[in-house]
Specification:
With 398 residues, the chain is an alpha/beta fold. It has helices at residues 33-47, 70-80, 93-100, 125-129, 132-137, 157-161, 172-181, 183-186, 202-211, 223-232, 248-265, 302-313, 334-344, 355-363, 379-386, 391-397; strands spanning 13-17, 24-25, 28-29, 51-55, 84-86, 107-109, 143-146, 168-170, 192-197, 218-221, 269-270, 274-279, 282-287, 299-300, 315-321, 349-353, 373-374. Helix 1 (33-47) packs across helix 2 (70-80), helix 9 (202-211) runs parallel beside helix 15 (379-386) and helix 12 packs parallel to helix 13 (334-344). The chain is elongated and about 70 Å long.
């Protein structure tokens, strides 16, 4: 197991890696749950008197979201209720001067680490540890804290390089996310374990289903993956109609695996009994028996919601990855919100993962405290569910 902030000695110069990668609108970064979560770790370090410098990324080179972190510093300052200074430099002279000038309890945000070519280089952890980025910054710090669980599946320089040369610890977000998200692999539950799968990326969910069949008693499907499995079951859905490009390519790539999973684990896979669509601006529903798809389906129907709610109520543990419908439109939020409300009303151990699903909790004013854990991770959450190793965790444990 890795060390945490409970093991960190006092009065240290600390380099913290966080993940506040966020939507950008008209050049402005938008606040989200990641800022508030990481602010808790930074506040704890600052209140303890550490001198804190922060590494983070935003976007990827060539994309519209690839911007500097000045706006991120402003948002973090609001969440911390203290100034987070920003320096438009990552490991050059300006950054080093700002780092060396840190006083006890101060927090400094360095420039977007992905503006450094070495960050994304395809190298081993040993090679990353010898990069100019790590080699220059590491001597300036007594400790390295990785709080960026959302990037734990990335073997980037700021993730796996520093733990090779600096005492390394897990931040509070890293600690909580890893414990909750790996529970399906590491914990034993006496009752039934249910997994709710939805969203638009079927390949991720198929990958999960293949690897958790021994630990999950029931899969409740919706979204794109729900329609694709309905297609495998012989229903006339799960393909593109005019205006959609979500199904055909994913079916071509995953048909064989989908059919194999449905044949082998069909008794544990629950498919939508009805689906919802837009008709003259209103929500309409149709049963899947005998349906002919002529328009896009945007949610599971009421009968499905009721059935899924009853399965949730009988579960000891529930893991959620992806939304069951287009919940951003209130007309088609019944599936996603209904299941989340059912989970929230039980005593089941529950983990809600995937950025979209977590956003639904905020959008519909659900109490996050009614869930065991709400994950802010995507790819790392999927890998944790399947028990696959995460480079960041391996680096911290080493």
């Amino acid at each position: 197991m890795f060390r945490t902030l409970d093991d960190l000695p006092g009065d240290r110069r600390v380099l913290v890696r966080i993940d506040v990668n966020s939507p950008v609108e008209n050049g402005d970064v938008r606040d989200n749950k990641r800022f508030s979560r990481h602010a808790e770790t930074l506040r704890e370090l600052a209140d303890a008197g550490h001198r804190v410098a922060v590494l983070a990324h935003q976007g990827r080179p060539g994309r519209d979201t690839f911007v500097d972190l000045e706006g991120h510093a402003e948002i973090l300052s609001e969440h911390l209720d203290r100034e987070v200074r920003y320096v438009p430099d990552t490991y050059g002279d300006r950054a080093l001067e700002a780092i060396r000038g840190l006083e006890s309890g101060e927090v400094l945000l360095l420039e977007n680490v992905r503006m450094v070519d070495e960050e994304l280089a395809d190298r081993s952890p040993e090679a990353h540890a010898e990069s100019a980025l790590v080699g220059t910054l590491a001597p300036e710090f007594d400790a390295y804290v990785n709080d960026a669980y959302s990037t734990a599946h990335r073997a980037h320089a700021s993730i796996v390089g520093f733990p090779r040369v600096v005492d390394a610890y897990a931040g509070r977000v890293m600690e909580a996310e890893y414990e909750a998200n790996s529970a399906i692999q590491n914990r034993e539950f006496d009752g039934e374990v249910t997994m709710v799968l939805g969203g638009t990326k079927a390949d991720d969910l198929i990958y999960v289903m293949e690897r958790v069949e021994h630990t999950v008693d029931r899969f409740l499907l919706g979204g794109i993956v729900g329609e694709l499995f309905l297609r495998a079951a012989g229903h006339d859905v799960g393909y593109d109609v005019e205006g959609s490009e979500l199904f055909d390519e994913q079916w071509d790539e995953g048909e064989e695996t989908i059919r194999e999973l449905f044949e082998e684990y069909g008794d544990r896979i629950r498919l939508p009994a009805d689906l919802a669509y837009e008709d003259d601006g209103e929500r309409s529903e149709v049963g899947v028996e005998g349906v002919e798809k002529e328009t896009s389906f945007l949610d599971v129907g009421g009968d499905t919601v009721a059935e899924y709610e009853s399965f949730v109520e009988d579960s000891e543990a529930v893991f959620v990855k992806g939304a069951l419908g287009v919940f951003e439109d209130e007309r088609f939020a019944a599936g996603t919100v209904g299941v989340l409300e059912a989970i929230a009303s039980t005593d089941a151990f529950s983990v809600v993962g995937g950025g979209d699903t977590a956003r639904a909790i905020d959008l519909y004013d659900l109490d996050e405290g009614n869930f065991s854990h709400v994950s802010i991770a995507g790819g790392a959450y999927v890998r944790a569910l399947t028990g696959e190793s995460l480079p960041a965790i391996e680096a911290l444990e080493r």
